[in-house]
Amino acid sequence: MKENLIAKILFIIGTAIMVIGFITGLAVGNMSYDYDFGIGGGMVWSIFFTYFFAGIISGMLFIGLSEIIRLLHSMNNEIGYKTPMPEKAPADSSQNQPPDKWGVSQTDKEKIYDLYQNERILEIIPSNIEGYCLVKMADDSGKQFVRIVDIGGFGATETNETAIKQRVIAWYNEKGN
């Protein structure tokens, strides 16, 4: 997955702010003078900790923002943009044609394997409805069966919508498998 440049820049800025806060705290804390006598007074810890904690808090805000952007970027890459399914399916035969540019990604396959971790999966086929796939499985006796799985959300779930099941199974049977 491609790194998000903005998240990386914000992380570097946050780290730099924390380091600069530490160095500034050391420098300013050591530069304290006794104004009455003009002699160096040593390290003033309250000044050091003021600059140090200001740098830590400011830096952590930038790092937190970079983490939010990184997570949103990875979620966007994982889910992708899905077009909403129309309310009523068109009556022509084009409804049984698979969408042009959609397939089951590796992360979606992992979701399906997690969903059916105790089952034997033979094949995962992207269906004619984007966001749904047909999972071909076999039981212990070798009998094959299929499940219709919705991979449009954060996880894979077996769909209970009869209309979608019928459309996908009709498409699969028409396809000749």
Radius of gyration: 29 Å
> Helix/strand-derived class?
alpha+beta
**What percentage of residues falls in helices of 4 or more residues?**
40-55%
Shape: rod-shaped
Percent in strands: 15-25%
Secondary-structure element sequence? Answer: HEEHHEEEEH
| Span of the ends, CA to CA | 34 Å
Low-confidence stretches: 88-99
Largest sheet: 4 strands, antiparallel
The overall strand count is: 6
The residue-averaged pLDDT reads 81
Q: Helix count? A: 4
Looking across the biggest beta sheet, what order are the strands in? 3-4-5-6
Counting copies of identical and different chains, the oligomeric state is single chain
Keywords:
single chain, 177 residues, alpha+beta, four-stranded antiparallel β-sheet, two-stranded antiparallel ribbon, 4 helices, 15% strand
Blueprint (SSEs and pairs):
Layout: H1 5-30, E1 33-34, E2 39-40, H2 45-79, H3 106-115, E3 120-126, E4 132-138, E5 144-150, E6 157-158, H4 162-175
Antiparallel strand pairs: 1-2, 3-4, 4-5, 5-6
Helix pairs in contact: 1-2
Overview of this protein structure:
This protein starts with a helix and ends with a helix. With 177 residues, it is an alpha+beta fold. It has four helices and six strands; from the N terminus they run αββααββββα. α1 (5-30) packs antiparallel against α2 (45-79). Mean pLDDT is 81; it is low at 88-99. The strands form two sheets. It has a four-stranded antiparallel β-sheet with strand order 3-4-5-6, with helices on both faces. Strands 1-2 form a two-stranded antiparallel ribbon.
